[in-house]
Amino acid sequence: MFQDSITLKNRHLKFIKTVSENEIVYGLKSKNGFATSSSTQYEDDNGNPIELICFWAEKVRAKSCAKDEWKNYKVTEIALSEFMENWCVGMANDGLLIGTEFDQNLFGFEAEPLDVILELITELRSIGKDLNFRKFNGINDLENQIKEVTE
Fold first, then answer.
1. Long-range pairs, 109-116, Cβ under 8 A, ≥24
2. Average pLDDT in the 46-61 region?
3. CA nearest neighbour of 73 among 122, 125, 3, 26
4. 10 Å Cβ neighbour count for 34?
5. Residue 53 to residue 91: CA distance in whole angstroms
6. 88-111 pLDDT, tens per residue?
7. Rounded Cα–Cα distance for residues 74 and 98 (Å)
8. CA-CA distance, 7 to 10, in Å (whole number)?
9. Closest residue by Cα to residue 55 from 39, 82, 36
10. Where does the pLDDT of residue 3 fall: very low under 50, low under 70, confident under 90, or very high at 90 and above?
């Protein structure tokens, strides 16, 4: 079943809005780690698909994906500030991608972790929110440091 890129992008945009409002991101976790998939769009230097870790904005959507290869996974909450400063930054350093709002057929949006942080910062600003981070002095500091790395 093919899902067009517009549908996936719209689900991703809803993910950005929802997690910015609720300040919670959901993942699926087992004793072996978090639910991962392989990119269908990005390859490493050897032509292998890049690994991505999947995240959801709603507990019920994450739970609906805990079947088949993910049947032993449990839904876990991640605070948005922790997701941004630890998960996204760490995944960028590890060369991993973020998958958002995957469905039961494992179709979802694929994004670079630093791009996701910048999208979240834009949304947080638009709704007048800042976050408390451990390693950064608010979203402006985080944004400035990302821009230094990416430019």
1. 109/8, 109/9, 109/11, 109/12, 109/15, 110/39, 110/40, 110/41, 110/42, 110/52, 111/12, 113/87, 113/88, 113/89, 114/88, 114/89, 114/146, 114/149, 114/150, 116/16, 116/88
2. 96
3. 26
4. 16
5. 9
6. 999 999 999 999 999 888 889 999
7. 18
8. 5
9. 36
10. low
Assess contact for 143 and 121: CB atoms under 8 A: yes
If one counts every other C-beta atom within 10 angstroms of the C-beta of residue 10, the result is 13
- CA–CA gap between residue 16 and residue 142 (Å, rounded): 17
Domain definitions of the chain by residue range: 5-150
Structure tokens at 104: 């039961």
Among the four given CATH numbers 3.40.5.10, 3.90.550.10, 3.40.50.2300, 3.40.1350.90, the one describing domain 5-150: 3.40.1350.90
Locate 87 and state its tokens.
Answer: 């998960």
> What are the tens digits of pLDDT across the range 9-52?
999 999 999 999 999 999 999 999 999 999 988 998 899 999 99
